[in-house]
Amino acid sequence: MSVERIRNIAFIGQSGAGKTSLVERLLFETGDITSQGELARGTTVTDFDPQSIAYQHSVEATPVNLSWHDTQLNIIDTPGLGDLLGRSISVFPAIESVALLTQPHAGVGNTAEQLFNTAKNKQKCRLIVVNKIDAEDAASALPALMGQLQASFGAKCLPINLPDPSGHQVVDCYFKPDYNSDTLFSSVEEAHDQLVDQVVEVDEELMELYLEQGQALKPEQLHDAFEAVLREDHLIPVCFVSARTGAGLNELLHILSELMPTPLEGNPPQFYQGEKAVSLSQEEGAHAVGHVFKVSVDPYMGRVAFIRVFQGEINAESMLFIGSEKKAFKVGHLYRIQGKQRSEISKAVSGDICAIAKVDELDFDCVVHDSHDEDGLHLTTMDMPAPMFSLAVSPARRGDEQKLSEVLKKLCAEDPSLRLRHRVRQNETLLTGVGEFHLKIVLEKALQLYKLEIDTTEPSIDYRETITGAAEAVHRHKKQTGGAGQFGEVHLRVRALGRGEGFRFVNKVVGGAIPTSFIPAVEKGIRQILDEGAIAGFPLQDIEVEVFDGKHHSVDSKEIAFVTAGRKAFLEAIDKAGPIILEPIVDMQIQVPSEFIGDITGDLSGHRGMVTDSLPQPSGLVVIQAKAPLSELQDYARRMKSMTRGEGSFSMSLSHFETVPMQVQKGLVKAHDHPVSA
Length: 678
Prior knowledge:
alpha+beta, 7-stranded mixed sheet, 6-stranded antiparallel sheet, 16 helices
């Protein structure tokens, strides 16, 4: 298959829009499958994994390929759930076009809008597909939906075909428009003229031909300009289908194969070598370059890397390098994946999508190539949704600690929206995802695929301790156990620093009261308390400690004596200096439909939060900026989903630390095993 006959398209949209059903029907219509699967029975090509079947929602981005006349359509069916946004965005480097699926009564949806706007930012050519035109009362809902699409994405959203009044077929408004056909709204002639007007605006010669000579322009004449308006985001065609009845499917296949860009015509992602932008070659014989846009673990094939080829070709005998690695690996077997089915192929040309199995070094977002000339080649980092929902994880069975680490690393390698980190002080392993459901399916996969049971708890809050005043303290450490003893005396004072200033150690000892060689031991003892905490076990910050006097013994003074004396003098001084606990305050940016503003602001104020600004957006969404204690946001993802019916999203970042309310401090001190009085 030549690159000119390849189309790479991602189907995106809110969960329930019918992406999987439409892909299934298209596969059936093109003869790529002999019988049509059903979502409810778990027999569709793209929702083949146990979790997608169980939840009746796609949880993975799954590529399939269709043959339509002489064109190969590589279509990627993506998840529509907000928690899985990253799994959809991660496929964008592999495609030139994005088709947004929606339906008459559901509108666009916040997740779908985020994905579609991300596609715009990534310079993808965009198409809107309105599914379920045969639904009850669709006739009354479709004109309003068309208005909503134009309100959300601009007047450049123009119908390229229109449903007839019955919803049983669609009428072409571009290739061979029949001006006498009845349509549900607008008219064929009006829709055709709007499309042509929009297309010729980017081509002066066509514009002159169209306006001055009054000539009707054929689709063949408009083709290059049509590609240009898609690339420049000057047009978003809207077409209508029913995956259930098949209405509009041939028209959709015609649009995808004839109007959506080839890999040569789309806007390619920008590659870099170091910081230098690099343009890849499409000349015959060019070095092979591919990008891994998805990694999955198959029970039978092992680790599978899905690769978009951007230059040259990859074949079954290729020796490929990963990034800047000096050692190459042999491809061995090259596959085309169709759901859970795989077929071996001899080569994948530039613009195509293929898969390589059983190469553990192939990670998401890595670049493979067959020449050291391409060492260090990489794409710009993709902006993934911020992982905001965390769980502290531990193995359910003792002895599985190493297995837990290995499994979590594998799961994070597959999913670009997962984060894993170990908090040393709390001795916690934190798994962080986009939302509660995101982590739920990750943990389920660990059990189903790797037979690893994982216990979870809410992560502890990263509180801090500090002081509010100044104080002095003296501590003498003296120990005599026969033979050489231990002796050290430290005089120090503490005072509060400004918030965020950290820790400052000042040595003001004169006259050798504490020998210079023992000053580091005093500081070491103090720093132990900085890490361990003085009143509730949290790190201390924003404190200055000044050591100004002390005593030593020529025989019994040792490092351990001054470590102990410095430590205990510091504890005694803190106890006198008004110790308090600080809690992290985060900046929040919350995006919700306008009708939910009252619920969101009321919830925040009830959890010690404060709204600082509210910014209406043209799409009807509102961005709420707020500050709130992190301790009040442990279950915020769950609360927001309930308040906004799944239509809200949020991000947060650390702002500063503030004093916790006294009742909270009392509870934290009480819960600590070693209060300062001990």
